[in-house]
Design goal:
Blueprint: H1 3-10, H2 15-22, H3 32-39, H4 45-58, H5 62-66, H6 70-82, H7 84-92, H8 113-123, H9 139-163, H10 167-197, H11 203-208, E1 210-215, H12 217-220, E2 230-237, H13 243-262, E3 273-274, E4 287-289, H14 290-299, H15 303-308, E5 313-317, H16 319-334, H17 342-354, H18 373-387, H19 399-408, H20 414-438, H21 449-458, H22 470-500, H23 512-521, H24 527-538, H25 543-560, H26 565-579, H27 583-591, H28 593-605, H29 607-615, H30 633-647, H31 651-674, H32 680-707, E6 714-720, H33 722-725, E7 735-743, H34 749-768, E8 783-784, E9 797-799, H35 800-809, H36 813-819, E10 823-827, H37 829-843, H38 850-866, H39 885-899, H40 911-920, H41 926-950, H42 961-970, H43 978-1001
Parallel strand pairs: 2-3, 2-4, 7-8, 7-9
Antiparallel strand pairs: 1-2, 1-5, 6-7, 6-10
Amino acid sequence: MSLARRLISAGFSDLEKGERFLAAAELDGLDQDRIFAGLAMAANPDTALQSLVRLIEKHPALRELAAADPETSEPLYRVLGASEALGEFLIRHPEHLAAFDVKASPEPRQADPEQLRAALLTSVRADPGSSRPVAGMTGAEAYAALRTAYRRGVVDLAVKDLCAVDPLDFMPAVGAELADLAGAAIEAALAVSRAEAAGQFTAGEVAGVGLAVIGMGKCGARELNYISDVDVIYVMDAGDLDDARANTVGTALATGISRAIFSVAREPGLWEVDANLRPEGKSGPLVRTLASHESYYARWAESWEFQALLKARTIAGDRELGERYEKAVAPLIWSSAGREGFVESVQAMRRRVTEHIPAAEEQRQIKLGRGGLRDVEFTVQLLQLVHGKSDESLRRRDTTSAIAALSAGGYIGRADAAAFDHAYRYLRLLEHRIQLFQLRRTHLMPVNESALRALAKAVLGPFSNDRPPADALLAAWQKTKRSVRELHERIFYRPLLNTAAKLSSEDARLTPEAAQGRLAALGYGDPRGAMRHIEALTAGVSRRAALQRQLLPILLDWLAEGVDPDAGLLAFRRVSEALGTTHWYLGMLRDSTAAAERLCHVLSNSRLIADLLEVSPESVAWLGNDKDLAPLGFEAQWQEITSKMSRHSDPESAMRLIRLIRRREILRIAIADSAGLLSQEQVGAELADTDRAAVLGALRVAEGTVSAGGPLKTAVLVVAMGRQGGREIGYGSDADVMYVHRALPGNSEDEAQEQAQRIVSLVSGLLTQPLKPAIMAERVLQMDADLRPEGKNGAMVRSLDSFAEYYRRWSLIWEAQALLRARPMAGDDDLARDFLALIDPIRYPESISEQDVREVRRVKARVEAERLPRGADPARHLKLGRGGLSDVEWLVQLLQLQHAGKHHELRTTSTVEALDAAASLDLIAAADAELLADAWRLASRIRSANVIWSGKASDLLPSSRRDLEAVARWCGYEPGNAAALEEDYLRLSRRARAVFERLFYGH
């Protein structure tokens, strides 16, 4: 076989470099077959060969081991092929090549923690037998000795890890030994720190201060990675010193630990010692007494801090002090599930699974993201916290032991536990092998083809001669991620269903109390009620019950992600009961993940949508197809209304159908809005079109009713005003309107006026009067004609000539301002054109006087003073408050009154379009226009979100955290960012008010 073919067979990626290194003088005379046999065991033979040549150059005696039989040389080749970084370490320190003078064991034993501690202390010439060891060296010499001894320990561990017959089985022992090594390194670093502190403090002070180092996170759990920050908390015993002096000494000792471990020195630093999990985080003192810790946890700590203590373990320093700390915090950990804020803390834990992942890394993450390591850890830790209060067998720090305990206790099924354990070990093994190569902190799957092939080989045991392709590795990883996600839902919810459905199962089944505790931890406020709903959905032997048992685990998880899971589950039950065994509904839930998730999202985040879906459950079918969520638009709605009116001549039947169509289209728009398919401007326009179709239908029904008693004598026009005229309404908006009529030829004005009055009265009644049976969950369209001439004192409807006469003789500037948003909504097209021709010169004057400008300003100031509800916070009122909708709209309307006569671009009923036009005409700075538009859009969005969330209209930015959270999510904020919405709105509205005052009042 040619050399090139042998290199390919051995797994080399760079053949040219491989041939060159094989020809190196350092390998002269060595048996090439033995060399190839060794390289065949290496995950990355390219790296192994290069490191081998460089090591022999430094230490020629290694030639003998390199050419030894494979059983003897296995540790050498496996380590050099799996870790470039350890190869570099051995090149710097060839004296540690003795690590390879061992026989590879297929079932290695974990190192004794005390032996590791003794080895690291001895490396800095400290006495392992002392209760508070002090190093015999300091400074760079001590740091190099400590770090070299630690890395020798890593080499020893890597030999065992890489030669173990089953890497998955040995994985927990690797994490434990790495944590023990880290603890030993910190013990040695503390000994060095004590020696260095002698230069600042007396020997009595240094010896008198006890310091316990508490490992947190993976180190505390003894499941550390090859390279990872080591999270710690420092507990101090002041001894006979006063607390202030002892704190100074303790802080110096803790700082010295970090210096010895990670400061710049000849031998590179190991890893960062991170004390940010301490009370008060970075803002708190680095060290505290035990009493200070207890005081903090009793008075100030948040729920997440108790959950973090789940992993707390003394890893170095004063053992007795550390044990007292562990004993003190243990009750706090296991009672945390009953503390206020626990659910919010759990939800924050969930978010940490996926948050802050750069887009470029999302598909490469092993730790974060759906199906990653953190997903497993979240699931296990939450189950421990929920059930560990009453079951002490669950109080395990490490993940694999916790999974076993949960299975043994019946909290998760045996098969699911085995699968979850295997998935976790596999993901951790991938992480270990990736980090081991360069000893760099990373959780990303490589992208390089050769690196992927090396990783595929590295995760196999020593008895496998395969070299799987990169695709096989990626496929196995993706399969594991999918398995983790599926197992997450099964592990959490399947036991609940077994309990609720009273299934005879050999698998996990919880007591009612345990089931309710699990639901409460996930955010269900009424877990007993939730269990009743689950039981109703899953009980029995019907096809629907069987399918619900299959689907509910993931549906319950999606519902739990909402702001109100209880309401969502109740609505889901009602929708499911209404649709019964409808084949398309069950099929959609089973086959369309997107539709099922969308359904859970809207049911648990929107009272309005939930109410509407409960009374029109057939609309659930839209959720599976974005095309079905596209709003119909006015023309399509009017065509449908016309068709239905032609088949239903009686007014009540016709109006029922018209109002049902409006209710249906509001629901369609709301669901499309929730799915992010519509902008805020599109929502307003589509809702306005839906109202327009309903009003036109009501007008035609009213005209038909009147004409049944005689011929029509007048043509009627409904004119939309205000936000309805601007097509900027929300889900809770009334319809501001004016009514205009014109007598038909041959009819007197008095007859026409009387008939017009009857028609408009009918229109309003037809849209609002109760029907039998009632239209459930309808948001009745209220017609508000207060903007008509003379307001509430004026005639409800006027003739076109009467409007003309009024505007000629009596019109005030505020009425011209109101006409800026007038838009024909329903009625006679010729009358609409003539009405617009009448009002255009009034609302778009060539100029307005200074007196008119002052009057507009005076009225605005009066509105602010008189119409803001008593007790309302102006900063939080979306309509009339500081920088709210009114400020933006009045400024825009003043600009239109001043300039629309000359600039046709300003002749629009839309606030945002008018703002854009004003900016393009340099009537307002572009930055100011953008700021005002952003403030207006956000206020409009919040206003609509209030209705969507609660089903009730409100003009206030919510103060309740729960309400604010729901509104924030509707506004596009990530879960847990209610405060960010509040801050953004208050800041934006404050800046908008400053722009308004400068441009409107001239301040």
